[in-house]
Amino acid sequence: MVSDDIKHEVRKLHIGRKIRELRKKSGFILQDLSDRTGLSKPLISQIEKEVVSPPVATLLKISRALHVNIGFFFQNGELEEKVVLVRRDESKVIDSRYFGRDESGYYYEALAYKKSKKNMEPFLVEFKRKKVEKLSYFSHDGEEFIYLLEGTLEFRTENQQYVLYPGDSLYFESSIPHAYRALERKNARALTVVYPTR
């Protein structure tokens, strides 16, 4: 179950509202954003209405199409700083299962959301255990780095599998369709850095 605290945090970010406002400001209709991202109109509509929360890969596609950094969606209008400090209790945790959408099977926490102009996007990600047949593969332009902190994590592409243990790291081109799943009852936790290319 998704905790009420996480639901509250997601609502406070108003990611869907920010997407809708940016889309309209750009003069795009839903079909325009769909064409630019490859995402379906119904999915974009659900995200804008905040019925579902987008996984990182989906949010990256939307941010590129709207010409903003993904960090924009986690901000509350702070002025841009050259150095930002995010305290442990200031984290922005998103549950990708928000309102019942269980596609990606992970939580992600934006670690540097206060800095909007940046080339890298660091996240703390918690992966859940899933059956292979229920995995969903995501892809987005750019590169990704993962450093496993806890648990055992399986990383899959369409024809390869890699098992990571604490201390292992993985660097890959994120345009390759990929999926993750924890292999133990305990969730796996990793530091993930995404470098989105435009």
Short recap of the structure:
The chain is α+β, with helices and mostly antiparallel strands and 198 residues long. It has helices at residues 4-13, 15-25, 30-37, 41-48, 56-65; strands at residues 92-95, 106-110, 121-127, 143-150, 153-156, 161-164, 169-173, 179-182, 188-195.
Structure description:
By secondary structure, the protein is of the alpha+beta class. The protein has one domain: Jelly Rolls, CATH 2.60.120.10. It is built from five helices and nine strands. The strands form two sheets. Strands 1-2-3-9-4-7 form a six-stranded antiparallel beta sheet. The N and C termini lie far apart (35 Å).
| Total strands | 9
Number of helices: 5
SSE order, as H and E? HHHHHEEEEEEEEE
**Class per helix and strand makeup:** alpha+beta
Low-confidence stretches: 1-8, 96-102
* Overall CATH class: Mainly Beta
As laid out across the biggest beta sheet, the strand order is 1-2-3-9-4-7
Write the CATH fold name.
Jelly Rolls
Mean pLDDT: 82
Oligomer: single chain
Helix content range of the residues, please?
A: 10-25%
Profile the largest sheet.
Answer: 6 strands, antiparallel
Number of domains: 1
Strand content range: 15-25%
Distance between the termini: 35 Å
> CATH-wise, what's the superfamily?
Jelly Rolls
Round the Cα radius of gyration to an integer and report it. Answer: 16 Å
